[in-house]
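testing teh design pipeline on a random one, pls ignore if ur not involved
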């Protein structure tokens, strides 16, 4: 066990017991803030409490030392401000009249941290211990070395390309989705709560009790403007759910790709449009823009419902049907479509008029790339396949005894051939507005590119009534590809190359292998071998070189007695 008397209580490094740490500058005589545990206090007969690093409405965070494993840790003490009192013996008692709020939060704090501790989701900051003591509860977390995503962006030009962001952020989506499935909603996803670790991976931090992330709750709240969804501002008839994390994540991705935080969600309730520089609309893939547009809808009933759907929109361009709107706010379908056409036309006019420095984001996301830039993106289609065909059905019998003798006819519409088209493109076509489309399956196809329709439930040219549902199958691309050669590349570049080929991020396994004849930190081997024809749903193993280069021999140092 390390002699803790030599530890700096500000950074938990061995500084030889110096009063002012030469490593971090912490003065050991500096007291922790009022209501915090004092530095050098020991809890659970194991953890040494150090400097207070953060205080919020949920509790107090300290840097700490684990005497059991001789490791630096982070310690979170449940101490809701205004509902907890620090006694002289350092125990915690509840403020009179606030017992319910204190205990409600304590139970939720316990549930969240025990869920994380029992989880194997890779992008979480691990919780290694949780225990009750001193009248409250403590969570002990692994100390992850890194900086916030916000700091990382500031140091790296302010934005990332989609290819870079994709490789970094997709694992986070899976982790947030996994926590949602366990009933845990973050409600605070932002560039401030995502950590970029020294190894280049991202982890999500600060899972907190609900009332910390809801305005006007009894606790002192902490919301991140631009990232917090409208329902977190206690709006009437709005409730948080998995779509709340979708908003936070979409806002984070928006900041990463565009360089600015989205406007406050409340300010967008009356007008959900957002400005985006035209160059980003041209550079970003159309399905990414559409996914952002859906994920950043200010009204939860119009927003992407969950993280899994959001991920499918980002990867495959699958645009989910919006959640049903409550009856009191429903608009007849024809009026919706009419309004949509008018909105599309006005956006098109604005772009053509050269107001290209900023334009309405939602319109750009789902309209601009399929109208103004259609030929640039998709090429010129066959005009014969784009024309609507309709036929008149035979006259049917009279309905009842209508004296006028009026007879009822049904108008039928010819089903178009949708194979080879992107779903996002189909639902924006005015000529397809009389049909209802739904994705029911995904399948490998050597004939149709990945992300396009490869099968439809009703064959082309069949005559059907208006609003008939057509079920679509989306192509996963060729079931086999010749795996790329990633030997000699960095880990990040290798992953990007494999992702481009269609391999799933979770199926790309990284292992170490020593090879003194190759460059350090590069890929030295891969399984299967490059050039092998394989299915894109298999696991791929890439071996990163553990050889660190020639190490210089240490100089002889004679110690003074």
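output:
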């Amino acid at each position: 066990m390390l002699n803790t008397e030599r530890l700096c209580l500000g950074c938990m490094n061995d500084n030889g017991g110096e009063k002012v740490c030469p490593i971090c500058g912490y003065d050991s005589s500096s007291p922790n803030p009022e209501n915090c545990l004092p530095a050098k206090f020991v809890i659970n007969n194991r953890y040494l409490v150090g400097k207070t690093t953060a205080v919020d409405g949920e509790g107090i965070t300290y840097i700490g030392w684990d005497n059991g494993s001789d490791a630096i840790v982070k310690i979170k003490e449940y101490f809701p401000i205004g509902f907890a009192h620090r006694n002289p013996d350092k125990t915690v008692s509840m403020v009179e009249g606030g017992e319910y709020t204190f205990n409600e939060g304590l139970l939720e704090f316990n549930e969240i941290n025990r869920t994380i501790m029992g989880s194997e989701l890779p992008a979480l900051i691990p919780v290694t211990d949780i225990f009750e003591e001193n009248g409250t509860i403590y969570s002990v977390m692994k100390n992850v070395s890194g900086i916030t995503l916000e700091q990382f962006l500031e140091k790296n030009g302010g934005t990332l390309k989609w290819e870079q962001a994709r490789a970094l952020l997709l694992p986070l989506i899976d982790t947030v989705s996994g926590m949602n499935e366990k009933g845990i909603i973050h409600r605070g996803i932002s560039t401030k709560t995502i950590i970029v670790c020294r190894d280049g991976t991202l982890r999500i931090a600060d899972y907190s009790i609900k009332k910390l992330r809801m305005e006007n709750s009894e606790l002192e709240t902490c919301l991140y403007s631009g990232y917090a969804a409208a329902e977190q501002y206690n709006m009437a008839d709005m409730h948080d759910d998995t779509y709340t994390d979708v908003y936070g994540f979409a806002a984070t991705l928006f900041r990463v790709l565009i360089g600015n935080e989205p406007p406050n969600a409340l300010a967008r309730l009356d007008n959900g449009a957002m400005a985006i520089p035209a160059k980003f609309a041209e550079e970003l893939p159309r399905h990414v823009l559409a996914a952002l547009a859906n994920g950043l809808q200010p009204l939860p009933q119009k927003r992407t419902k969950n993280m899994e759907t959001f991920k499918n929109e980002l990867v495959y361009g699958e645009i989910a049907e919006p959640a049903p709107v409550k009856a009191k706010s429903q608009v007849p379908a024809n009026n919706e479509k009419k309004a949509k056409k008018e909105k599309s036309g006005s956006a098109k006019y604005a772009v053509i008029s050269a107001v290209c420095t900023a334009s309405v984001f939602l319109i750009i996301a789902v309209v601009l790339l399929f109208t103004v830039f259609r030929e640039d993106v998709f090429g010129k289609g066959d005009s014969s396949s784009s024309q609507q065909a309709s036929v008149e059905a035979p006259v049917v019998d009279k309905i009842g005894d209508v004296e006028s003798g009026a007879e009822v006819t049904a108008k039928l519409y010819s089903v178009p051939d949708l194979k080879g088209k992107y779903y996002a493109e189909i639902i924006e076509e005015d000529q397809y507005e009389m049909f209802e489309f739904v994705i029911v399956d995904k399948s490998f196809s050597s004939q149709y590119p990945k992300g396009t329709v490869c099968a439809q439930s009703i064959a082309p040219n069949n005559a059907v009534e208006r609003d008939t549902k057509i079920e679509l199958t989306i192509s996963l691309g060729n079931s086999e590809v010749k795996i790329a050669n990633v030997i000699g590349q960095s880990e990040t570049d290798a992953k990007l190359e494999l992702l481009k080929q269609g391999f799933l991020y979770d199926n790309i396994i990284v292992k170490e292998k020593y090879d003194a004849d190759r460059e350090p930190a590069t890929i030295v081997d891969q399984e299967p071998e490059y050039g092998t024809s394989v299915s894109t749903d298999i696991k791929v193993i890439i071996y990163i070189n553990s050889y660190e280069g020639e190490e210089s021999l240490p100089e002889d140092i004679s110690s003074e007695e």
